[in-house]
Design a protein that fits this description.
By secondary structure, the protein is of the alpha+beta class. It has two domains: 2-76, no CATH class; 89-236, YojJ-like (1 (3-Layer(aba) Sandwich), CATH 3.40.1700.10. The protein is built from nine helices and seven strands. It has helices at 2-15, 19-38, 42-62, 64-76, 89-108, 124-127, 139-145, 185-196, 225-236, and strands spanning 113-117, 131-136, 156-160, 163-169, 200-204, 211-215, 218-220. Strands 2-4-3-1-5-6-7 form a seven-stranded mixed beta sheet, with helices on both faces. It is elongated. The chain starts with a helix and ends in a 15-residue tail after the last helix. It comes from Formimonas warabiya.
Length: 251
Protein backbone atom coordinates (compact mmCIF):
# COMPACT_ATOMS: atom_id res chain seq x y z
CA UNK A 1 0.00 0.00 0.00
CA UNK A 2 2.86 2.39 0.77
CA UNK A 3 4.55 1.67 -2.56
CA UNK A 4 1.26 2.10 -4.44
CA UNK A 5 0.60 5.42 -2.70
CA UNK A 6 4.10 6.73 -3.44
CA UNK A 7 3.75 5.75 -7.11
CA UNK A 8 0.39 7.52 -7.23
CA UNK A 9 1.89 10.71 -5.76
CA UNK A 10 4.75 10.56 -8.25
CA UNK A 11 2.23 10.37 -11.10
CA UNK A 12 0.38 13.35 -9.64
CA UNK A 13 3.68 15.21 -9.36
CA UNK A 14 4.70 14.77 -13.00
CA UNK A 15 1.15 15.50 -14.17
CA UNK A 16 1.92 19.17 -13.73
CA UNK A 17 5.08 19.14 -15.85
CA UNK A 18 6.39 18.45 -19.35
CA UNK A 19 7.58 15.07 -18.05
CA UNK A 20 4.19 13.66 -19.06
CA UNK A 21 5.11 14.00 -22.74
CA UNK A 22 8.51 12.44 -22.10
CA UNK A 23 6.92 9.44 -20.40
CA UNK A 24 4.50 9.04 -23.31
CA UNK A 25 7.50 8.95 -25.63
CA UNK A 26 9.21 6.31 -23.48
CA UNK A 27 6.04 4.18 -23.45
CA UNK A 28 5.83 4.46 -27.24
CA UNK A 29 9.43 3.26 -27.59
CA UNK A 30 8.71 0.36 -25.22
CA UNK A 31 5.69 -0.76 -27.26
CA UNK A 32 7.58 -0.35 -30.53
CA UNK A 33 10.45 -2.42 -29.16
CA UNK A 34 8.13 -5.29 -28.19
CA UNK A 35 6.32 -5.18 -31.53
CA UNK A 36 9.58 -5.24 -33.50
CA UNK A 37 10.70 -8.25 -31.45
CA UNK A 38 7.46 -10.15 -32.13
CA UNK A 39 7.55 -9.34 -35.88
CA UNK A 40 11.29 -10.11 -36.14
CA UNK A 41 12.18 -6.63 -37.37
CA UNK A 42 15.81 -7.05 -36.40
CA UNK A 43 17.19 -3.73 -37.66
CA UNK A 44 14.49 -1.69 -35.90
CA UNK A 45 14.96 -3.79 -32.77
CA UNK A 46 18.72 -3.09 -32.83
CA UNK A 47 18.13 0.66 -33.22
CA UNK A 48 15.62 0.72 -30.37
CA UNK A 49 17.98 -1.28 -28.12
CA UNK A 50 20.73 1.27 -28.72
CA UNK A 51 18.23 4.07 -28.03
CA UNK A 52 17.35 2.55 -24.63
CA UNK A 53 20.98 2.60 -23.55
CA UNK A 54 21.17 6.37 -24.12
CA UNK A 55 17.74 7.13 -22.64
CA UNK A 56 18.55 5.77 -19.19
CA UNK A 57 21.74 7.82 -19.08
CA UNK A 58 19.83 10.98 -20.04
CA UNK A 59 16.87 10.51 -17.68
CA UNK A 60 18.59 12.22 -14.75
CA UNK A 61 19.27 15.26 -16.94
CA UNK A 62 15.84 15.33 -18.57
CA UNK A 63 13.94 15.05 -15.28
CA UNK A 64 16.24 17.34 -13.29
CA UNK A 65 13.57 20.08 -12.76
CA UNK A 66 10.98 17.52 -11.64
CA UNK A 67 13.42 15.81 -9.26
CA UNK A 68 14.44 19.17 -7.79
CA UNK A 69 10.83 20.21 -7.28
CA UNK A 70 9.94 16.86 -5.70
CA UNK A 71 12.73 17.24 -3.15
CA UNK A 72 11.69 20.83 -2.45
CA UNK A 73 8.07 19.82 -1.90
CA UNK A 74 9.17 16.96 0.32
CA UNK A 75 11.22 19.40 2.40
CA UNK A 76 8.27 21.81 2.68
CA UNK A 77 5.90 18.97 3.57
CA UNK A 78 3.83 19.51 0.41
CA UNK A 79 4.65 16.25 -1.37
CA UNK A 80 1.50 14.56 -0.06
CA UNK A 81 -0.82 17.42 -1.04
CA UNK A 82 -2.26 17.74 -4.51
CA UNK A 83 -5.13 19.90 -5.73
CA UNK A 84 -6.88 19.21 -9.01
CA UNK A 85 -8.73 21.89 -10.94
CA UNK A 86 -10.53 20.13 -13.78
CA UNK A 87 -13.47 22.21 -15.01
CA UNK A 88 -16.81 21.20 -16.40
CA UNK A 89 -18.41 22.76 -19.47
CA UNK A 90 -20.29 25.45 -17.56
CA UNK A 91 -17.28 26.54 -15.51
CA UNK A 92 -15.08 26.66 -18.61
CA UNK A 93 -17.58 28.85 -20.47
CA UNK A 94 -17.72 31.19 -17.46
CA UNK A 95 -13.92 31.35 -17.44
CA UNK A 96 -13.88 32.21 -21.16
CA UNK A 97 -16.44 34.97 -20.64
CA UNK A 98 -14.39 36.51 -17.82
CA UNK A 99 -11.21 36.33 -19.88
CA UNK A 100 -12.87 37.89 -22.90
CA UNK A 101 -14.39 40.74 -20.88
CA UNK A 102 -11.06 41.47 -19.23
CA UNK A 103 -8.98 41.33 -22.40
CA UNK A 104 -11.36 43.55 -24.39
CA UNK A 105 -11.35 46.16 -21.59
CA UNK A 106 -7.53 46.08 -21.40
CA UNK A 107 -7.28 46.42 -25.18
CA UNK A 108 -9.50 49.50 -25.20
CA UNK A 109 -7.29 51.11 -22.54
CA UNK A 110 -4.11 49.94 -24.33
CA UNK A 111 -2.94 48.21 -21.17
CA UNK A 112 -0.37 45.50 -21.87
CA UNK A 113 -1.19 42.02 -20.61
CA UNK A 114 -0.06 38.41 -20.95
CA UNK A 115 -2.42 35.68 -19.74
CA UNK A 116 -1.52 31.98 -19.92
CA UNK A 117 -4.17 29.27 -19.62
CA UNK A 118 -2.68 25.90 -18.69
CA UNK A 119 -4.13 22.85 -20.40
CA UNK A 120 -2.84 19.26 -20.22
CA UNK A 121 0.88 20.02 -20.19
CA UNK A 122 1.79 21.38 -16.78
CA UNK A 123 3.94 24.49 -16.52
CA UNK A 124 4.79 24.41 -12.82
CA UNK A 125 8.40 25.39 -13.54
CA UNK A 126 7.20 28.79 -14.76
CA UNK A 127 4.52 29.17 -12.09
CA UNK A 128 7.28 29.00 -9.50
CA UNK A 129 9.02 32.04 -11.04
CA UNK A 130 6.09 34.30 -10.14
CA UNK A 131 4.13 35.35 -7.08
CA UNK A 132 1.55 32.81 -5.89
CA UNK A 133 -1.99 34.16 -5.77
CA UNK A 134 -4.62 31.37 -5.92
CA UNK A 135 -7.47 33.76 -6.74
CA UNK A 136 -10.67 32.93 -8.60
CA UNK A 137 -10.61 34.31 -12.14
CA UNK A 138 -12.75 37.37 -12.80
CA UNK A 139 -12.45 40.23 -15.27
CA UNK A 140 -12.14 42.77 -12.47
CA UNK A 141 -9.47 40.82 -10.63
CA UNK A 142 -7.33 40.34 -13.74
CA UNK A 143 -7.77 43.99 -14.65
CA UNK A 144 -6.33 45.02 -11.29
CA UNK A 145 -3.34 42.71 -11.74
CA UNK A 146 -2.34 44.48 -14.96
CA UNK A 147 -2.62 48.04 -13.68
CA UNK A 148 0.45 49.88 -15.09
CA UNK A 149 3.39 50.69 -12.81
CA UNK A 150 2.51 47.88 -10.39
CA UNK A 151 4.87 44.99 -9.48
CA UNK A 152 2.85 42.35 -11.38
CA UNK A 153 2.12 44.35 -14.52
CA UNK A 154 5.09 43.23 -16.63
CA UNK A 155 4.97 39.50 -15.91
CA UNK A 156 2.61 36.79 -17.10
CA UNK A 157 -0.50 35.63 -15.27
CA UNK A 158 -0.94 31.85 -15.28
CA UNK A 159 -4.40 30.31 -14.92
CA UNK A 160 -5.02 26.72 -13.89
CA UNK A 161 -8.61 25.61 -13.82
CA UNK A 162 -10.69 28.58 -12.67
CA UNK A 163 -7.92 30.16 -10.58
CA UNK A 164 -5.07 32.55 -11.12
CA UNK A 165 -2.27 30.50 -9.58
CA UNK A 166 0.52 33.03 -10.06
CA UNK A 167 1.31 36.45 -11.52
CA UNK A 168 4.52 38.18 -12.52
CA UNK A 169 5.82 34.93 -14.02
CA UNK A 170 8.83 34.72 -16.34
CA UNK A 171 8.39 32.70 -19.53
CA UNK A 172 10.85 31.37 -22.13
CA UNK A 173 11.22 33.61 -25.17
CA UNK A 174 10.73 32.18 -28.64
CA UNK A 175 13.80 32.23 -30.88
CA UNK A 176 11.69 31.93 -34.04
CA UNK A 177 13.69 33.86 -36.69
CA UNK A 178 10.54 34.52 -38.76
CA UNK A 179 8.71 36.40 -36.02
CA UNK A 180 7.84 39.99 -36.90
CA UNK A 181 10.57 42.26 -35.53
CA UNK A 182 7.94 44.75 -34.38
CA UNK A 183 6.61 42.28 -31.80
CA UNK A 184 7.81 42.81 -28.26
CA UNK A 185 8.75 40.62 -25.32
CA UNK A 186 5.16 39.72 -24.42
CA UNK A 187 4.51 38.21 -27.85
CA UNK A 188 7.82 36.33 -27.86
CA UNK A 189 7.14 34.97 -24.37
CA UNK A 190 3.62 33.91 -25.36
CA UNK A 191 4.93 32.13 -28.44
CA UNK A 192 7.75 30.58 -26.41
CA UNK A 193 5.43 28.97 -23.85
CA UNK A 194 3.17 27.71 -26.66
CA UNK A 195 6.15 26.05 -28.35
CA UNK A 196 7.07 23.94 -25.31
CA UNK A 197 3.57 23.21 -23.98
CA UNK A 198 -0.07 23.11 -25.06
CA UNK A 199 -0.90 26.23 -23.04
CA UNK A 200 -2.96 29.01 -24.62
CA UNK A 201 -1.52 32.52 -24.33
CA UNK A 202 -3.55 35.72 -24.69
CA UNK A 203 -1.63 38.93 -25.36
CA UNK A 204 -2.70 42.57 -25.32
CA UNK A 205 -0.24 44.95 -26.96
CA UNK A 206 0.62 47.97 -24.85
CA UNK A 207 1.45 50.07 -27.93
CA UNK A 208 -1.54 49.30 -30.18
CA UNK A 209 -4.10 47.52 -27.98
CA UNK A 210 -4.09 44.61 -30.44
CA UNK A 211 -5.34 41.28 -29.06
CA UNK A 212 -3.37 38.16 -30.06
CA UNK A 213 -3.53 34.47 -29.17
CA UNK A 214 -0.59 32.05 -29.21
CA UNK A 215 -1.10 28.29 -29.26
CA UNK A 216 0.76 25.26 -30.63
CA UNK A 217 3.68 27.45 -31.65
CA UNK A 218 1.46 29.78 -33.71
CA UNK A 219 0.62 33.44 -33.15
CA UNK A 220 -2.71 34.78 -34.42
CA UNK A 221 -3.34 38.53 -34.15
CA UNK A 222 -6.11 41.13 -34.47
CA UNK A 223 -8.90 39.50 -32.50
CA UNK A 224 -12.11 41.27 -31.57
CA UNK A 225 -14.51 40.34 -28.79
CA UNK A 226 -16.57 37.79 -30.71
CA UNK A 227 -13.68 36.19 -32.57
CA UNK A 228 -11.66 35.98 -29.33
CA UNK A 229 -14.50 34.26 -27.49
CA UNK A 230 -14.99 31.81 -30.37
CA UNK A 231 -11.26 31.03 -30.50
CA UNK A 232 -11.02 30.42 -26.77
CA UNK A 233 -14.04 28.12 -26.89
CA UNK A 234 -12.42 26.21 -29.75
CA UNK A 235 -9.17 25.80 -27.82
CA UNK A 236 -10.37 25.36 -24.23
CA UNK A 237 -13.81 23.75 -24.21
CA UNK A 238 -13.35 19.97 -23.97
CA UNK A 239 -14.34 18.12 -27.10
CA UNK A 240 -16.83 15.24 -26.87
CA UNK A 241 -15.25 11.78 -27.05
CA UNK A 242 -11.79 13.29 -26.57
CA UNK A 243 -9.12 10.97 -25.21
CA UNK A 244 -7.83 11.79 -21.74
CA UNK A 245 -4.98 10.55 -19.60
CA UNK A 246 -5.84 7.65 -17.35
CA UNK A 247 -5.14 9.76 -14.24
CA UNK A 248 -7.42 12.71 -15.28
CA UNK A 249 -10.63 13.13 -13.34
CA UNK A 250 -13.75 14.24 -15.19
CA UNK A 251 -15.68 17.09 -13.64
Amino acid sequence: MIVAYVMYKLLMLIRGTRAVQLIKGILFLLIASNISDVLHLYTIKWILDKTWSTIFVALAVIFQPELRRALEQLGRGQFFVRVTNDLGMGDMLRLIDELTRCVVKLAKAKTGALIIVERETGINDYIETGIKIEGIVSAEFLGNVFIPQTPLHDGAVIIRGDRVVAAGCFLPLSDNPYLDSSLGTRHRAALGISEISDAVAIIVSEETGTISVAYEGKLVRYFEEKTLRDKLQELLVPKPHANTHFWNRRA
